[in-house]
Structure formats: C-alpha cells, structure tokens
C-alpha cells in the first residue's frame, strides 16, 4: 500500500474569498504579520501495491477528472 | 515574505464520507487499485519577513484556533 498526496490549489489569478476571510479573521483575532492566505484541498490517495509510473499516471488522470477542476485549479502529486 | 503550509486532515478514527464518495466514483470511472481516499484542507499562509520560531508558534496557534478543529482534525505545519 502506498500513498499519493494530491494538493489542489486555486490558480494564482483566481480570487480566493475563503482565504481573504481568513486574513480578515487573523486581523480581528490579533495575529499580526499574515499577508495572504490561500485555501485549497489535499487528498491522500492510498493505492494498492507499489507506485510505479503507470500508477502515478492513473492518479494524475484521476486528479484531472475528479479531484481538481483544471479550469480554475492547479494540482501537484507527491508520493509519500 | 515566507510561506507556511498548513495541512489539515480528519483524525484517522473520524469517518470521511467525502473520501468514501471519491473511492466509489473511482470504481465507476474505471480507476482500479484505489484502496482509500481521505480529503482534507491545505492552507498556504504567507507571513511577512522570515519565519522564525516565534512566527511559527503564531501560525501554530492560528491553525489551532482558526484553521483546524482539534476535536476531529489533526494538522501539520511545513515551511516552504
């Protein structure tokens, strides 16, 4: 069993109102020095057996079609 | 400007219906070999200046109070 982590973040040019709300809350709660926050998603995908190139390509296709919206989001894969 | 990444995941003993729904969708879409998926959140926190121990402690407090629910979620900090 191996784990592939898929990090999905909004593209830099897409507004992130959730992140902006967190920055506003930081100010109100007294956390100084927080310039920007962006919120995204993290998926931990457990795959059977070892992660070879074919498995990784499968997870990439999975991320493109199911986990991320490639119009507004970027994603990164990481084997852990 | 430095970036601290906060990964927030449900604790292992907490059910993750979103992850289970993704596993079900994998089956229907023909992605074989996906045993388990857990969905969490990823926050990219940009802080002013360098990240020293005090800043990191601030971000940890921020994660505990605002970004994660410590009753059901674990979080990890990573300086990038």
TrEMBL record, chains A, B:
Enzyme Commission code(s) on record: 6.3.5.3
Annotated pathway: Purine metabolism; IMP biosynthesis via de novo pathway; 5-amino-1-(5-phospho-D-ribosyl)imidazole from N(2)-formyl-N(1)-(5-phospho-D-ribosyl)glycinamide: step 1/2
GO BP: 'de novo' IMP biosynthetic process
Locations listed in the record: Cytoplasm
Catalytic activity: N(2)-formyl-N(1)-(5-phospho-beta-D-ribosyl)glycinamide + L-glutamine + ATP + H2O = 2-formamido-N(1)-(5-O-phospho-beta-D-ribosyl)acetamidine + L-glutamate + ADP + phosphate + H(+)
Entry-linked InterPro entries: PurS, PurS-like_sf
A molecular-function term among this protein's GO annotations: ATP binding
GO cellular component assignments: cytoplasm
Keywords attached to this entry: ATP-binding, Cytoplasm, Ligase, Nucleotide-binding, Purine biosynthesis
EC primary class: ligase
Top-level division of the source organism's lineage: Bacteria
SUPFAM superfamilies: PurS-like
PANTHER family: PHOSPHORIBOSYLFORMYLGLYCINAMIDINE SYNTHASE SUBUNIT PURS
Task performed by this protein: Part of the phosphoribosylformylglycinamidine synthase complex involved in the purines biosynthetic pathway. Catalyzes the ATP-dependent conversion of formylglycinamide ribonucleotide (FGAR) and glutamine to yield formylglycinamidine ribonucleotide (FGAM) and glutamate. The FGAM synthase complex is composed of three subunits. PurQ produces an ammonia molecule by converting glutamine to glutamate. PurL transfers the ammonia molecule to FGAR to form FGAM in an ATP-dependent manner.
Family: Belongs to the PurS family.
Subunit structure: Part of the FGAM synthase complex composed of 1 PurL, 1 PurQ and 2 PurS subunits.
Annotated protein name in UniProt: Phosphoribosylformylglycinamidine synthase subunit PurS
Species this protein is from: Marinitenerispora sediminis
